[in-house]
Design a protein that fits this description.
By secondary structure, the protein is an alpha+beta fold. The chain has four helices and eight strands. Helix 3 crosses helix 4. The mean pLDDT is 90.
Amino acid sequence: MNAQQSLQVVESLHDIVDAVRRLDQVFVRYSAGPDTDREGRSMDYESGLEMPGLSVAVLSPEPWWTRPTADWVARRLCKYDDLLDAGRFPWLLTGDIVGWGPDHEPLVEVREPLMRVGNEALAEARRTYHARFEVGNDSRQGGT
């Protein structure tokens, strides 16, 4: 069985939040999975350059975050919905930051693939995000 097939599919936002709380730093990657990403490098398609690691988003909350961890996790999962398609899904991993991408995203070397985020967990994250945030509100609406 390959690593992609052996990734546990998690269907609960609560289970994802538990992993984030338990582990030091958790990242989320939207791709065809760890088997496809085994080369360990993302491409900057605008420049044509190969980057030194995989492009990911941080799923662990920042120290200044005083709201529930579930809010942070739901928001971070939803921010990358546009990356979902038939060939890509979100999966969680631990890794070591080896650089920063052109959009200031961390580039990591994978330590351990953790789990695949299932459709039900994504739906729960979307419901949480829309219920607890003013989605789309930004500094153009008068904030600082």
